[in-house]
Amino acid sequence: MLQATMVEPGRIVFEDVPKPGMGKGQVLIRVKACGICGSDVHVWRGEHPFTSYPVIQGHEFSGIVESVGEGVEGIGPGTKVTVEPSIVCSRCYPCRHGRYNICDNLKVMGFQTDGCHREFFTVPAEKVVPVPEEMSFEAAAMVEPTAVAVHAVKKADLPQGAKVVVLGAGPIGILTMQAAKALGASEAMITDVVDFRLDVARRLGADYTVNVGREDVLGAISNAFGEDKADVIFECVGAEETLETAIQRARKGSRIVVVGVVGGRPRLSVGLLQDRELEMVGTLMYMRDDFLTAIKLIDLRKVTPTEMITAMFKFRDLPDAYREADENRGRNLKVMVEF
């Protein structure tokens, strides 16, 4: 069995290792496809604050069940699946109260514990999520980022017919735009500084696109939605500048959902949150129900994640895939690795 270990930033070592065994309650998966996300690139560059080396990367993936361990029911060999890559303790307060996505002891495959960059991968049965047989392996691998978007939209508690703004037209931003429209929004605007990404977002359903390098967001929102502006703003960049934009441009009494991963300690106009009774809501990862909703939306083609795949690489070319995702972000949305 071939596996790829990131031994230090920018250096991957391939190893031939024995095919893994299984314990009670585990499932052995033959990995078929895996996407590379922005967080993966941060590990590649040595910039992820919660990942140490060596580590086997990969967390948004799909495959086929090879075999199941003792006590596993409801799933068998040959089943096409994806995996919810969070490992939780089931003991802390969030876990005991149905919010295991914010587990006090959360670990994520590919970051704090090893991931799927190997030909066979053993995972707990409760993390395995079957997908429709007709769904492609590439689409199934993108259920995970779609679930991130679904969870964010659910946290927004959208009123029916809502008008939303998504700051950032990366994969998560575009998926959030599509999920919002699928789950009740009537119109969606998306912003970025890269025309290529905005062009894809427009093709995939954005009603309005704004290049913030050339156009003011407030004027664009007013022109599109009138004086009532947007009901919800999704921040999908994770940068001080876009967080501040969200606060400055939000309608009084509206909600801001922070989807992007924010580094450092940004300086923000918190006084405006109080003065305008804004709600700033954090959102982290997903739960199983978000995976099930994501699968349904993809199956119905209300969300079309595979249309964001801009480059494909073989598993043995994994270092090239990381370089492509890192160095050519202006022409890529999703880099996919096939096994």
Strand percentage: 25-35%
* Tally of separate helices: 11
The average pLDDT value, as a whole number, equals 96
Which regions contain 5 or more consecutive residues with pLDDT less than 50? none
Structural class: alpha/beta
- Dominant shape: globular
Report how far the terminal alpha carbons are from each other: 12 Å
- One letter per element, helices H and strands E, the order comes to EEEHEEEHEEEHHEHEHEHEHEHEHEHE
Assembly context of the chains:
single chain
Q: Count of DSSP E strands?
A: 17
* CATH fold-type name of the largest domain: Quinone Oxidoreductase, Chain A, domain 1
- CATH architecture assignment of the largest domain: Alpha-Beta Complex
Query: How does the major sheet shape up?
Result: 7 strands, mixed
Radius of gyration of CA atoms, rounded to a whole number: 20 Å
User: Helix content range of the residues, please?
Assistant: 25-40%
Number of domains: 2
Write a concise keyword list for the protein shown above:
single chain, 339 residues, alpha/beta, Quinone Oxidoreductase, Chain A, domain 1, Rossmann fold, 2 domains, 7-stranded mixed sheet, 6-stranded parallel sheet, globular
Write the layout of secondary structure elements.
Layout: E1 2-8, E2 11-16, E3 26-36, H1 38-44, E4 60-68, E5 80-83, E6 86-87, H2 93-96, E7 107-108, E8 120-124, E9 128-130, H3 137-141, H4 143-156, E10 163-167, H5 171-182, E11 187-192, H6 195-203, E12 208-211, H7 217-225, E13 232-235, H8 240-249, E14 255-258, H9 270-275, E15 279-282, H10 288-299, E16 309-314, H11 318-327, E17 334-338
Parallel strand pairs: 10-11, 10-13, 11-12, 13-14, 14-15, 16-17
Antiparallel strand pairs: 1-2, 3-4, 3-8, 3-17, 4-5, 5-9, 6-7
